[in-house]
Design brief:
It is a single chain. The protein is of the alpha+beta class. It has two domains: 79 residues, no CATH class; 169 residues, no CATH class. Helix content is 39%, strand content 15%. It has seven helices and seven strands, in the order ββαααβααααββββ. A five-stranded antiparallel sheet has the order 4-5-6-3-7, with no helix packed on it. Helix 4 crosses helix 7. The protein is globular, with a radius of gyration of 23 Å. About 17% of the residues have low confidence.
Length: 266
């Protein structure tokens, strides 16, 4: 929390939040803990206000800009919610490190994972073809949100087998393609060799992304297992050394094995 301004009927907050943590989770956390603290200090609120906060909130990005004097107000806000020496529980802090774990899926789990990768490869190619055809034949552009909105209909009619893949994984395929085109247009604007996004051949789509863990994917550290939606629990091996913000490229696991990269906050 960087800046705090209390208004008669609402509160202005300037916050820093890890996208992996989620703005909605942070807002829910702030409302819940501030409501608990205020009701504990002012018991009359329990009788006069059955619900201290409404469900609505407004969020707008501000980039890397900082507000002068923000750290003073941040300390005040921290004191209101948890006390001077106790930061908000769950607030994103620390350093992100990626650990790579080897998986030992069963033959059935290997088959399910391979099917999910194949469906993601098909989706990538279908979305890329849609963008390419729209521009070449009609000089129209298809953006990220248009293609993301097509997913429910695609699963219901065009490609029912896509239902075997978690919805957030499918959305990440759309996002990957968007990032590929963003990089393409950025290189074009800079006068560099652009490199148009390519269609993926068999075996050329080899990873699944779950952006809101534990939704769809959860690591059971005590039992050394990874729980993957529509696949089940797969045994895991030891973690490799941390390798910075992103999982490193390099050696692929042996046939029949897999790898998972997990972000840990240290």
């Amino acid at each position: 929390m960087i800046e705090l301004e209390v208004m008669p009927d609402h509160v202005h907050l300037l916050l820093g939040c890890d996208p992996q943590f989620g703005i909605h989770r942070l807002v829910k956390l702030l409302k819940g803990q501030s409501s608990h603290a205020l009701r504990a200090e002012f018991p009359t609120l329990k009788r006069r206000l059955p619900s201290l906060w409404t469900n609505s909130y407004f969020v707008a990005p501000v980039g890397g800009r900082w507000v002068a004097g923000g750290w003073r107000d941040a300390r005040c806000a921290q004191r209101l919610c948890r006390g001077p020496e106790r930061p908000l529980k769950g607030t994103p802090m620390g350093t992100l490190k990626t650990f790579k774990y080897r998986l030992y899926p069963t033959k059935e789990q290997q088959r399910l994972l391979s099917r999910q990768l194949e469906e993601c490869r098909w989706l990538w190619n279908a979305l890329l073809a849609e963008r390419k055809t729209a521009w070449e034949e009609r000089q129209e552009t298809v953006d990220y949100y248009d293609q993301k909105a097509e997913l429910p209909l695609l699963k219901a009619t065009d490609r029912p087998s896509v239902q075997g893949v978690h919805s957030q994984v499918l959305q990440e395929v759309v996002l990957r393609l968007k990032k590929a085109f963003d990089a393409f247009f950025r290189r074009v604007a800079a006068g560099e060799t652009p490199g148009y996004p390519r269609f993926r051949g068999a075996g050329r789509y080899d990873s699944l992304t779950f952006p809101q863990v534990p939704v769809g994917c959860a690591l059971e550290a005590a039992e050394k297992r990874l729980v993957v939606a529509k696949v089940g629990r797969a045994d895991q091996g030891r973690a490799a050394a941390p390798a910075g913000r992103h999982a490193p490229d390099g050696d692929h696991p042996p046939h029949g094995h897999g790898q998972v990269g997990c972000l840990h906050r240290l």
